[in-house]
Structures are given as structure tokens and as C-alpha cells.
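Incident log, support desk, overnight shift.

02:14 A customer reports that sequence design results differ from what the structure should imply. Their input is reproduced verbatim below. On-call engineer (initials T.W.) acknowledged and began investigating.
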């Protein structure tokens, strides 16, 4: 996906995903906003426990919600192919800078 979109395009897609799931008033992804908007991702059948588990998995600061950085980190962790692609792009950029 990163190779197809490029680094900027990929980051924009992550941002769009965050915006799709965010609680507009709080500026973070909450249990309620994830539960409400999960159908947009085809995840309408997620149980409350699965939603809570997903939030816990990415909630680094322990506030019970996902900020944009936590969301992006979680997406990378859940997608090994993204990690491989991003590592490859990072190494290519590093080599090109020298």
C-alpha cells in the first residue's frame, strides 16, 4: 500500500482513517465513536469486548481513547506488510540522502 500511494499518500490515508473514526468533540477515537463508525469499515459485527480490546491494544497513554499517533502506531502494528513497506521506504530514503 505504501509503495502504491507513496509516503505522503499513505500518511494521508491514515489521517483519513483517523478522521473517519474520531469523536469530533473530543478529538480522539473513543469506545463510542469506534463502535458507531465501525460499520463504515465493514466491522459492524464487532462485539463491545472486541472494540474495547482494540482500544486497549493501541492506548499507550492509558486514557481509554486513541489519539492520532496511537491510531497510526496501531495500524502499523496490526499490518506487518505496512511495517515491511515503511521500513523499505525509510531505508531507501536513508540511502538516497547519502
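02:41 Re-run completed on a clean worker. Output:
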Amino acid at each position: 500500500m505504501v509503495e502504491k500511494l507513496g509516503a505522503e499518500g499513505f500518511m494521508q490515508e491514515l489521517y483519513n482513517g483517523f478522521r473517519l473514526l474520531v469523536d469530533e468533540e473530543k478529538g480522539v477515537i473513543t469506545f463510542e465513536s469506534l463502535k458507531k463508525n465501525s460499520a463504515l469499515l465493514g466491522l459492524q459485527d464487532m462485539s463491545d469486548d472486541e472494540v474495547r480490546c482494540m482500544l486497549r491494544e493501541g492506548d499507550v497513554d492509558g486514557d481509554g481513547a486513541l489519539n492520532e499517533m496511537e491510531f497510526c502506531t496501531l495500524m502499523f502494528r496490526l499490518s506487518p506488510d505496512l511495517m515491511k513497506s515503511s521500513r523499505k521506504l525509510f531505508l531507501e530514503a536513508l540511502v538516497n540522502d547519502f
